[in-house]
Amino acid sequence: MTGAGLFVVLEGPEGSGKSTLATALAERMRQAGMDPVVVREPGGTRAAELARNALLDPDHPVGPVSELFFYLAARADLVQTLILPGLAAGRVVLSDRFTLSTEAYQMAGRGLPPEVVLPANRAAAAGLVPNLTLILDLSPEAGQARQLAGGKRLDRLDRESGEFHRRVADYYLAVRGDGVRHLDGQLSPDRLLQVAWSEILRMAADRFGAVTS
Ligand SMILES: Nc1ncnc2c1ncn2[C@@H]1O[C@H](COP(=O)(O)OP(=O)(O)OP(=O)(O)O)[C@@H](O)[C@H]1O
Ligand SMILES: [Mg+2]
Fold it and tell me: What are the two backbone dihedrals, phi and then psi, of residue 160, each rounded to the nearest 5 degrees?
């Protein structure tokens, strides 16, 4: 499904620590001799960055269906341009968000119907399923407090209602499945790195039969 490489995705609500963990994990991977492809969604290619700007601009809102397809267009381009080639070359691909974000935000958050969102989401991902999805569990209130404390310029999605963010967080909390692990988003960044790294090593050992470091 993921070719020769290993596909690791970080998910979770706003401010749950995904980007902080992605940076630390990428560094840890390099120390271990890996050469990871590190991407964030939406973004990573020229077309996907254009979609990102269109999506997150608080001054020029787009409607829910337009939003869905902008995200999916960005994902489809990223998958074809960077993720599939990286996996085919046997590399680890680390992505800050992937298909689960669309389920949480556009389906649970916006209320778009699953029969529209799920097949379109699969098509955008070219059927690719992550080997490992690490979900950072954190309440939307705590996440938003962190974003504010960190001085983040809030984007259009960050500014959605409390109920919207509650639906997103509840969706994430309920996700179960092969290769899905929930991590406590309240852990310190160092502790999260440790826990996430051991999950990755375990998954790599399952796939390749060898533990690196
Ligand atoms: N484990 C942690 N404990 C406490 N604070 C953290 C932790 N991880 C990140 N932070 C802080 O919380 C804020 C949000 O972190 P980060 O940007 O990594 O989250 P995110 O999930 O990527 O957010 P977004 O959804 O906005 O992209 C930052 O100011 C960061 O320094
Ligand atoms: Mg982030």
Answer: -65, 170
Residue-wise pLDDT for 69-89, tens only, equals 999 999 999 999 999 999 999
Identify which has the larger pLDDT, 22 or 206: 22
Ligand 1: centre distance to CA 21 (Å): 8
Local structure of 134: helix, strand or coil = strand
* Ligand 1 binding pocket, CB closer than 6 Å: 12, 14-20, 146-147, 150, 152, 187-189, 192
Ligand 1 atom with least separation from CA of 149:
29
pLDDT of residue 208: 81
In a domain, 213, yes or no: no
Report angle CA 27, 31, 37 to the nearest 5 degrees. Answer: 50
Per-residue pLDDT tens for 192-204?
999 999 999 999 9
Prior bond of 61 cis (ω within 30°): no
Q: Which ligand is nearest to the CA of 195?
A: 1
For residues 37 and 186, what is the distance between their CA atoms, to the nearest angstrom? 27
Which residues crowd ion ligand 2, with CB under 5 Å? 18-19
Asked whether residue 79 is assigned to any structural domain, the reply reads yes
Q: Which ligand is nearest to the CA of 16?
A: 1
Looking at the domain assignment, is residue 53 inside a domain?
yes
**Residues 25/68, Cβ–Cβ less than 8 Å:** no
74 within a domain of the structure (yes/no): yes
Domain that holds residue 144: 6-208
